UniProtKB/TrEMBL annotation:
Tagged with keyword ATP-binding: yes
Residue intervals passing through the bilayer: 41-62, 190-215, 275-294
Keyword Transmembrane included in the entry's annotation: yes
Keywords: ATP-binding, Membrane, Nucleotide-binding, Transmembrane, Transmembrane helix
Limits of the ABC transporter domain: 371-612
Protein name: ABC transporter ATP-binding protein
Topology with respect to the bilayer: Multi-pass membrane protein
Cellular compartments annotated: Cell membrane
Gene3D superfamilies referenced in this protein's UniProt entry, alphabetically: ABC transporter type 1, transmembrane domain, P-loop containing nucleotide triphosphate hydrolases
Matches recorded under InterPro entries: AAA+_ATPase, ABC1_TM_dom, ABC1_TM_sf, ABC_transporter-like_ATP-bd, ABC_transporter-like_CS, P-loop_NTPase, Type_1_exporter
Species for this entry: Hyalangium rubrum
Single GO MF annotation: ATP binding
SUPFAM superfamilies: ABC transporter transmembrane region (SSF90123), P-loop containing nucleoside triphosphate hydrolases (SSF52540)
Length: 619
């Protein structure tokens, strides 16, 4: 399981090393993803890496032979045999260089193909996980941060981590071939090469950790930055932004937050530059110290000119290879830190994999299943106040229930529990005598048709906006037309340029925007796509339509829901009074329950609210 992200900087070097070891355990999972993306390309990458690793030493050695051959030929007056040998070696080096270029190009191509495959695989995993998450996860800021961190790095970090590992292997193989040549000339030079590179590794690892903490801990503020940008760029905010003159305020906050991010990034960049410059000077000094030593040996005739050229070439490239190994380790550390975000997100428990008890057989489809709430209480995660408290209700097939009460009374929360978007904190909900926690959640939800107050305006065609209410019938135009008639959306659709094929919304080309009331009629039609739904839920379905359209809708609704359970949430009492039962919720509790006439005779909260609204219409 992925370790949790640190909430504060590790206080000591020991703590940092412990944290690093924990995060490097992400490597096996990353390599599994890499293999799953494309086994064939993974093998090709491995082979090309090994070939690329041995070519530099071969090229360097052939270069030494060319120099020694040229020197020998010049001493012997340009002997024909020696000149021919030199030309042959030049041709060999040319072939090796061509091979190296071909291998490098092939590696680049393989990396790009793997990047596409791996990025697609991970995006699918992230989106699939999003489908498994419950409503509580989307309403939790910590989970949202994990999702955003995972999405931000999914296309780059996994491949980067794997490629750094292959780079280490490549450089190790290259160093092994170089070591044979360097030891023959000067064993201590290998020690100098290693010692000059270690400080760079320490600095790189430290800065990598600092970069990770910076980008991870600013996730909530990054979300705020995106939200401020959203306010200024989305069509549904423009009216208030213009009317209230919000532009300068929001833009000012955006600029302030951006400047904070920029200052943090600049400080980190300056640290990287400072350390890089200092360590670069150290590395350069080590190289030129060895350069002077080798040049002196060549001048005294201890080694040949070719040996000097080989030594300097190998030392310089060996130093780069060793430092490349250490840099790759530092980069792998940073990549592994970011991979922990991905695995932390993918491993969020959803609670849907294993039911708490052995699932009972779901009740058969069709009318005849009652819904019963037994002493149901619920509070949202992290909250102390109860959203619902000791709610007991029973609905028989064909019965209509209206939920009324002030905002925050618990009406929509009760609907969320019925759809198992949340589970009761206490008590139970039975469907056909079966606790809904023991039912397959997809089967349970397939029995409901619903239109919510915050319905979605899909940037799709009209037909798709309606057909999404029952995906298996998305291509059934006759059923879509019937649902549009039932939802009162047919007149709206007839007036559109391409009718059911009209693209809606303003996000894409040729999109047709609708009024709030027209969008709502499509949402109601979408709910009516489920012709075999056993329960219909209408959550403020008439908030954006006129009184005449409301009356027509509920006449159709009454006919369609004749033998089904129907639950209506509305602030319009002309709608509410049509229900068989009216539950008046107050502070999460059912304060009154009964028919319209019974509640009016009781002269309680319902009668008070009804009279207030009726007086408003009369006045």
């Amino acid at each position: 399981m992925a370790p949790p992200l640190p909430s504060a900087p590790p206080p000591s070097l020991k703590s940092r090393l412990k944290n690093a070891g924990s995060l490097f355990r992400q490597l096996p999972g990353t390599f599994r993803l890499f293999w799953q993306a494309s086994p064939k390309l993974a093998v090709v990458l491995g082979v090309l890496t090994l070939v690329a690793a041995v070519l530099p030493a071969a090229i360097a050695y052939v270069g030494k032979l060319i120099v020694d051959g040229v020197v020998a030929a010049s001493k012997e007056g340009g002997a024909e045999v020696l000149r021919s040998r030199v030309l042959g070696l030049v041709g060999l080096e040319f072939g090796l260089m061509l091979g190296s270029a071909l291998v490098d190009r092939s590696l680049a191509l393989t990396r790009e193909l793997l990047r596409a495959n791996l990025g697609n695989l991970l995006n699918e995993r992230i989106l699939h996980k999003a489908l498994e998450l419950e409503l509580r996860h989307f309403e939790d800021s910590d989970t949202y941060d994990k999702m955003q961190n995972a999405r931000r790095e999914a296309n780059s970090r996994p491949l980067s981590l794997v490629m750094q590992a292959f780079t280490i292997v490549r450089n190790l193989v290259t160093l092994s071939t170089y070591a044979v040549l360097l030891v023959a000339l000067s064993p201590w030079s290998v020690v100098v090469l290693v010692a000059a590179s270690i400080p760079a590794f320490i600095a790189e690892a430290r800065l990598a950790a600092a970069g990770f903490r910076l980008y991870s801990w600013r996730a909530p503020e990054g979300r705020k930055l995106n939200y401020l940008e959203w306010i200024l760029t989305r069509d549904n905010h423009v009216k208030e932004v213009k009317l209230f003159g919000l532009g300068p305020l929001v833009l000012g906050r955006y600029r302030t937050l951006f400047q904070k991010f920029f200052s943090e990034d600049r400080a980190l960049a300056l640290k990287r530059m400072g350390w890089g410059l200092g360590l670069g000077i150290l590395s350069l000094g080590a190289f030129y110290g060895c350069y002077a030593f080798v040049a002196n040996r060549a001048a005294t005739g201890t080694i040949t000119v070719g040996d000097m050229v080989l030594y300097l070439s190998v030392f310089r490239q060996g130093q780069a290879a060793f430092q490349g190994i250490l840099t790759s380790i530092g980069s792998m550390y940073e990549d592994a830190l970011f991979m922990s975000n991905l695995f932390a997100y993918l491993e969020i428990p959803t609670g849907s994999e294993q039911p708490r008890v052995l699932p009972a057989k779901s009740p058969p489809r069709g009318p005849g299943n009652a819904i019963e709430l037994r002493d149901v209480s619920f509070r949202y995660p992290g909250k102390e106040a109860w959203a619902l408290r000791n709610v007991t209700l029973k609905l028989q097939p064909g019965e209509k229930l209206a939920l009324v009460g002030e905002n925050g009374a618990g009406k929509s929360t009760l609907v969320k529990l019925l759809l198992r978007l949340y589970e009761p904190t206490e008590g139970s909900i039975l469907y056909g005598g079966v606790d809904i926690r023991d039912m397959d959640v997809a089967d349970l939800r397939s029995r409901f048709g619903a239109v919510f107050q915050d319905f979605v305006r899909y940037q799709f065609s009209v037909a798709e906006n309606i057909g999404l209410g029952h995906v298996p019938a998305l291509e059934d135009r006759n059923r879509i037309v019937r649902a549009a008639d039932l939802g009162g959306a047919s007149p709206v659709i007839t007036a559109l340029p391409q009718q059911y094929d009209t693209m809606l919304g303003g996000w894409f080309e040729k999109g047709q925007e609708l009024s709030a009331g027209q969008w709502q009629k499509l949402a109601v039609a979408r709910a009516f796509m489920r012709e075999d739904a056993e329960v219909l839920i209408l959550d403020e379905p008439t908030a954006s339509i006129d009184a005449e359209a409301e009356h027509a809708l509920f006449e159709r609704f009454q006919a369609l829901a004749a033998d089904r359970i129907a639950i209506v949430i509305s602030h319009r009492f002309s709608t509410v009074r049509m229900a068989d039962q009216i539950a008046v919720l107050h502070n999460g509790q059912v304060e009154e329950l009964g028919s319209h006439d019974a509640l009016m005779a009781k002269d309680g909260r319902y009668a008070h609210l009804f009279n207030l609204q009726a007086r408003g219409y009369r006045d």
